[in-house]
Amino acid sequence: MLYWGSTVRINDVTSVIRRRDDLRLLEGTPVLVSGRVKEFRKHERRKDLDTILLVNLIITPKPIGESISVGHLWFLRRQFKKAGRVPEQGERIRFEGEVYSYRRLGGKSIDRGLFNTTDYGVKPLLYYAH
After folding, report:
1. Residue 116: burial class (beta carbons within 10 Å; 0-12, 13-18, 19+)
2. CA-wise closest residue to 17 among 68, 73, 71, 70
3. pLDDT of residue 13
4. CB-CB contact of 53 with 37 (8 Å)
5. Residues whose CB falls within 8 Å of the CB of residue 95, separated by 6 or more in sequence, listed in order
6. Fold exhibited by the domain 18-127
7. pLDDT tens digits, 20-43
8. Element holding 77 (H helix, E strand)
9. Which of 61, 67, 77, 82 is buried most deeply by CB count within 10 Å?
């Protein structure tokens, strides 16, 4: 049975199934990201906090290293605007970015007991045309 973080052996090649927590190992590292836009969410009071949900992400360090599969990540809409363009719903996108850390300070993190914990995200820097 496979689970996140387990080791897999296929054709005498060993690979580790990476998970979201492994983004901490890539902090400050340039990465290539591929994911699908699932949802847009408008902030009730501040337009600069509008967000975009990407799902089924594959994050690969540059130069090419072991990819990390992430179920979902939220991005600020303004980050994509600065990178070149805001994607459309349902679109599969590819971009170059950098892994960064941040402190959870609000929203559902308080309800989940995650207030003031460290989490990791990817800052979009450059779009790749399809």
Report:
1. exposed
2. 68
3. 45
4. yes
5. 32, 33, 83, 124, 125, 126, 127, 128
6. OB fold (Dihydrolipoamide Acetyltransferase, E2P) (2.40.50)
7. 778 998 999 999 999 999 999 998
8. helix 77-83
9. 77
